[in-house]
Amino acid sequence: DQQVKQNSPSLSVQEGRISILNCDYTNSMFDYFLWYKKYPAEGPTFLISISSIKDKNEDGRFTVFLNKSAKHLSLHIVPSQPGDSAVYFCAASAETSGSRLTFGEGTQLTVNP
Amino acid sequence: GAGVSQTPSNKVTEKGKYVELRCDPISGHTALYWYRQSLGQGPEFLIYFQGTGAADDSGLPNDRFFAVRPEGSVSTLKIQRTERGDSAVYLCASSPGSGWRNEQFFGPGTRLTVL
Asked: CB-CB: which of A44, A100, A104 is closest to B59?
């Protein structure tokens, strides 16, 4: 069963506009969420995280929102830049499951100049 | 400083052969993870080491897969009697601690192709 889902395989936005990437999860034990960014031929790179005790975390152009009741989180990038073009993975972990991360399928973001 | 490194970057083998994939974590990181990423999917957890011991190997798909970390640093993922379905990118990650809120730093992966 897919416990973390990213329903949009791809997203295309114009430079300077907002990018919104979405993620849904089913396991109510998840209490820590992360976003990773991946360029071709490289490993995923940590971007931003959020604990379940918060509903928002902001770091520069990147903001993650968590809606626990809906089991939904989103990553906002504003303003989007061409260098943001990459695959973005949502991941989740639970204290009860130790350190393993459960990833979504990924969303390919393309920012057009 | 150096990040996580993995060797080889690419490995092509024939069905039924044995392969070893190596991971060098970031110096000082006590936790080490192996994930497998199939085409169009996100990374899937395989095994996690804290120090020399496997703290969680519940993600290993079957007994053809085995991993070691004898000195608490470098790790080797071993796959016996490879099958075509084993073809994937094998990712290694390390983190400074073992808590579930530790950021994991990933290597570039080894692309395994089983013919």
From this structure: A100
Q: Please give the structure tokens belonging to residue B44.
A: 């899937």
Report residue B23's pLDDT band, with 50, 70 and 90 as the boundaries: very high
pLDDT band for position A43 (50/70/90)?
Answer: very high
User: How far is the C-alpha of A80 from the C-alpha of A57, rounded, in Å?
Assistant: 18
Confidence of residue B1 (pLDDT cuts 50, 70, 90): low
The per-residue pLDDT for A2 is 85
CA–CA distance, A48 with A54 (Å, rounded to integer): 13
pLDDT tens-digit series, residues B30-80: 999 999 999 989 999 999 999 999 989 999 999 999 999 999 999 999 999
A60: CB partners within 8 A, 6+ apart: none
In this structure, the number of other CB atoms found within 10 A of the CB of residue B73 comes to 18
Tokens of B91: 């990712």
Chain B nearest CA to A48, separation (Å): 9
Chain A residues in contact with B99 by the CB 8 A cut-off are 99
Closest CA relative to residue A73, chosen from A29, A113, A112, A20: A20
CA A107/CA A82 separation, integer angstroms: 16
Residues of B with Cβ-Cβ distance to A51 under 8 angstroms: 101
- Choose among A42, A46, A104: nearest Cβ to B103: A46
From chain B, the residues in CB contact with A93 under 8 A are 100-101
